[in-house]
Amino acid sequence: MRRNSLRIVCDSYHRQISYYFRNESGVWTEVCGDSPLSRLYYTNTTMQDRAKEIAEKMDAIYNRKNKGLDIFFEGENQSLAYLQGAIRVYLPDRDIVCTPGVTKIAVAGKIHAGKTSLIEGLEQAFGHPYTMHTFPDYAMYEDDANHAQWYEIKGIDLGMDHVEKAYKTISTLAEQGLSAVVYCVAAVTGRMEDAERDLILRLMDAYPKVTMLVALTISIKKDVRSFVNEIKQMAEQIKVIPTLAKEYELEIQNPKTGEEESVFVKPYGLDILSKYVLERK
């Protein structure tokens, strides 16, 4: 008797919940538009507000005749507790197993590409203090709420050995359940190296189930859109998100007085980036 499997990705930052069904080939696919779970009532919400209704709807659709339903949950501990509580109270006799997990995101790029600043910017933006754990090939950041784990891959020097080492590190993480790879390219440099493009394409080809995107860091230039289009053309139309992780001070010339003056550019793009990697769309 085959059990059905659902994956729930609960993004409490943006009040969004995504649902994925494991098909007969073992591949996770987002629930189709015909599924009630695709409706805004079940997606544009939180577990705190809708746990009972979500649990009952999943049971009615995917656990008919009580054949068994396995739920793999990615999200904050508190959100998981709401769902488990609803299952325990309202569906005590149903065969539903809820297994906790965590969204894992690798952050890679050349040395000085802005990887650490990006992670620190996300920490400040969403108010979850991170604890850092250092390993030989990466630093891992996590918060007490179990919302996500960020893996900062050691900066890449553009030599074959360094690029290959980064590829192997990311591959190992991908085999361990990596959800996304954020490749950082500093917009101030105005270019992405061929070796970086090749690394991204290799990862996209080897791990099609892992969400891939480019974070265009330190995006302070007005013509950043042309660089975004250039990267998309280089890397098979990969998602590119301009970001500025921290407030940036620019010195510009006042057109009226001709004198230099400071202008402060506020951080931006972090909300869009986090939404993309947490919801995988």
Characterise this structure.
The structure is a single chain. This protein is an alpha/beta fold and 281 residues long. The chain is built from eight helices and 14 strands. The strands form three sheets. The protein has a seven-stranded mixed sheet, with helices on both faces. Strands 3-2-1-4-5 form a five-stranded mixed sheet, with helices on both faces. Strands 13-14 form a two-stranded antiparallel ribbon. The longest helix has 16 residues, at 47-62. The mean pLDDT is 90.
- Main sheet: strand order: 7-8-9-6-10-11-12
Give the mean pLDDT.
Answer: 90
User: Whole-number radius of gyration?
Assistant: 21 Å
Order of helices and strands: EEEHHEHEEHEEEHEHEHEEEH
Tally of strands:
14
Helix count, per DSSP? 8
- Binned, the helix content reads 25-40%
Helix/strand class: alpha/beta
> Beta-strand percentage?
25-35%
Low-pLDDT runs: none
Largest sheet: 7 strands, mixed
Terminal CA distance: 33 Å
What is the 3D shape? Answer: globular
